[in-house]
Structure formats: C-alpha cells, structure tokens
Automatic annotation (TrEMBL):
<protein>
    <recommendedName>
        <fullName>Amidoligase enzyme</fullName>
    </recommendedName>
</protein>
<feature type="region of interest" description="Disordered">
    <location>
        <begin position="1"/>
        <end position="37"/>
    </location>
</feature>
<dbReference type="Pfam" id="PF12224">
    <property type="entry name" value="Amidoligase_2"/>
</dbReference>
<dbReference type="InterPro" id="IPR022025">
    <property type="entry name" value="Amidoligase_2"/>
</dbReference>
<feature type="compositionally biased region" description="Low complexity">
    <location>
        <begin position="8"/>
        <end position="17"/>
    </location>
</feature>
Amino acid sequence: MPHYVRYSPASSSSGRSPQGHHDHHHKVVHRPHERDTRSEAPDFRFCIELGIVLRSRQFNHKSSHELETELSAQLTLAGIANSIASPSSESSSKEWTIASELCIPSRPKDHRFGIKLVSPFMRFAPGRHEPWLSKISNLYQTLNKNFEVTSTHQCFTHVHVVPAVGFWTLTQLKSLSKSALYFERCLDELVPPYRRRTVWAKSNRYNKYFGAFPTMSQCFKHIDKQTAFEGIAARMNWCSADSPTGTALSVSRAAKKENPATDFAHDTYRWNFGNIAGEGDGFGTVEFRQAPGSCTSSEAVTWIMLVGCFARLSCSPGHSIKPDDAPQTKSLGEWLLYEASWCSLPHHSLLENLVAQAIPTSPTPGKIPGMDADNITIDEDQRLRWKLGERKIGVDKYRRMLKHI
C-alpha cells in the first residue's frame, strides 16, 4: 500500500500563476523546479466525456444530427451553455460540447444514437465541489426529463485530469504512472467485467512495454529512468504492431507513411498518457478511460470523485508505493475515502458503495491478465480505424482553458 505524509493545508500546493506567452499555447506557465517543496496535494482541473445512448421522448429522430439539435435546444432551455461540435470551430472550455460517438453503435431504426457529451473544465479541490456537482446534476436532470438514457458495453465515462496550474511536473507524472500500474487490478474490480476486456481501455500494466517485466519493481525502475514526459507517455500507451489493434490500424498507419510493422503508442488504454506527448513540456491531460457509461448523475460523480482523489493522492508529497507489496482493493478504498474527506466532498457513500460492490477478478489459466482485451470484433476493428483521425474534443478544451488560467 502507498505511504504518504499529510502536512498542514495552510500552504498551497497549486503552484505559481502563469505569466507571459508560450510559443505553442500562446500562454507560458512558470514551472516550479522539481526540488521545490509542496505541503499538500495539488489541486486539479478536470473534464468528463460521457459516452451514452440517447433516444428522444418526443421525436422519432432519423439521424444523430437531428437528436443532437434537440439535445442542444433542451440544454439551452435549461440554462446549460453548450454547442454542437463542428470541424470549423474550436470547443469552448466553459461549456458542454455535443458530438456523435463513433465507438458506440447506433440503432437508427429504434431512434437511438451514440452521443458524446464533453463537459467544461472544472476544479477538483478542497471546498470547490459545489459548482461541478451542480453542473453534473443539472445536465442529468435535463437528459432524463427529455431523453431515454441507456448504456451499452461500448459506452464510457472518460475523465481528463491535469494539475490546476495547467501542466504536470515530471515527478507528478511518474507518481501517477506508478499508481496506475500498481492499482490496475484493484481498479479492475471496481468496473463491470466487460470493461476489463474492452479494446477501448486496454491494460497499461500488460501492454507491449511493461508486459515484458514480471515484477512491479522492474516497472517502477523503468519509470524512474525516464527523463522526458514523452518517454513516460509512450511506455504507458505502447501497442504491439502484431496485436489486433495494430493489425486494424496497419493500413491507416501506412497511409500516414508510418511503418505498420513497428510498435507504436496509442490512446486506447485504461489510462491515456498520450496527450502529454502530443502537447509536450508536461502540458496535456491524463485520461482515465475504463469507467463504464453513466446513466445517472450519481454514477458520473462517483467516477469523477475516484479519479480526482486518485490523482491528488498519487501526487501528494511524501506519497510512495512499496511495489513488492500486493495491492488491496479495500485499502485503496480507504485511501480514496481519506482524500474525499480531506477535500470535504459530500456523497462519500458513492465511493464506499463502489468499493463494497467490487467484483473480484478471475484470471483465465494460462493467460496474462489484461492481454485478452486485444481480442476484438470485426465491428471494433472498423471503429478503431474510424476513430483514428477523430477530433479530440477534451484536448481542444484543454488548450482553450490554458488561455484563461
């Protein structure tokens, strides 16, 4: 289990304010030196991507565009700022964005369509929970009033997180990477079994890179050796060229003049660190992708609390993990609840129930846990190619957010 030291919250750990301009982001954030001492876990900013299936209670829509138009109108009537994703415009970091979701099969004959709703960026910090709780609650009240909200195995709840200052330090990213690898089996127990095997959230621990190391200590040593953000991102999301995912993307990669026979980094892992590599210099979000679709505000809030508390504690000063000790789901739950209490978050019972209802993993004899996630269907094979060039709305929002920090 992790060991950490909790200091007085009197001193802020949120870092220094941004100054000046940055060539890539039009904003420069002064980066504290890695040796700077921090007295408390950093605050975080987050946005949530909700992949759900919607059907209107009033109209039999024949296309996802018709449904998106009604959804936008209903949100506007409820006072919820929103827009429909458009190739010609950037997504605002201060409003909800509506888009079709390519990894969720739609059923037009039943007037049901896979929809993605991407939230504004919000603050996850002690005493700052009311605004984001209200936003999530208001959204679902409007959804359930006007639409039938359902979920399939392809639906998801993705949570993007980044320290409140807008960037990661190398120390923070290494700490979160270690926690993600160490607690992977425990987090597997908190999601439905089908989210342990999905091609959209494959195992980081048993990807092509870390799967070569039999012990957690070896994984940690290789994380500690990294001197660049891009190195950590690539290793956390390394995909084998001869896996079904690699095979599905081989033609598309060749068209982009990439060698389809070489291994590569891809974002469809439980924790996606690829946005860090894309932005550079520690800028970018880390995205937790394993949570199932959320049909209620309570479900969405639960996953936000889990990821927010997990990130804060992983990046706490004094936090450390003994890699040779076996991780325990019960202890992880106590760890998360401790941070939820520290942050004065309400609804502790949501996290308590999630841990209490954990479903133990049952590895198949002769198989490495997590590797079976790469057994994909013909439909998933096709959708992986469709998603390859898809616009990343959460990343767009992050870039816009940097301009306002």
